[in-house]
């Protein structure tokens, strides 16, 4: 239940950043000055959340393999799939950020 709360909080934060970016482009305000560190913090939290999900999935899988802890295979597989989806989403965000950085660096001055 804790991971779904963290995921919901992450989604809420991403939506807030999206709204902030849209408001800045419409009103002429430059939100980049303040949101740069916010994006870094948000991305760090996302990576930490993915790490926690992967560690939890690994722990559950180990418990299923050893037969102790009363963990069902279904619970371990669901946890593993959640961790996989979270990792892929984080990887896609990273790829987009790297692509945007490369586009900016290749712009003529």
Number of domains: 1
> Which spans of ≥5 residues are poorly predicted at pLDDT below 50?
27-32
Overall strand count: 0
Query: What sort of overall outline do the alpha carbons produce when their principal axes are compared?
Result: elongated
Sequence of secondary-structure elements: HHH
Question: How much strand content do the residues show?
Answer: under 5%
Oligomer: single chain
As a percent range, the share of helical residues equals over 70%
Number of helices: 3
Global structural class: mainly alpha
The profile of the biggest β sheet is:
none
Distance between the termini: 50 Å
- Give me the Rg, rounded: 18 Å
- Average predicted local confidence, pLDDT: 80
Explained architecture:
By secondary structure, the chain is an all-alpha fold. The chain has one domain (2-105). The chain is built from three helices and no strands. Helix 1 (2-27) packs antiparallel against helix 2. The chain is elongated, with a radius of gyration of 18 Å. Mean pLDDT is 80; it is low at 27-32.
């Amino acid at each position: 239940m804790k991971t779904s709360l963290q995921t919901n909080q992450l989604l809420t934060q991403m939506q807030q950043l999206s709204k902030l970016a849209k408001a800045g482009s419409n009103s002429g305000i430059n939100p980049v000055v303040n949101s740069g560190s916010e994006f870094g913090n948000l991305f760090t939290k996302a990576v930490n959340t993915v790490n926690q999900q992967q560690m939890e999935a690994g722990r559950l899988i180990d418990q299923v393999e050893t037969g102790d802890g009363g963990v069902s295979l279904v619970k371990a597989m669901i946890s593993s799939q959640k961790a996989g989806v979270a990792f892929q989403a984080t990887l896609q965000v990273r790829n987009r950020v790297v692509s945007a950085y490369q586009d900016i660096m290749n712009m003529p001055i």
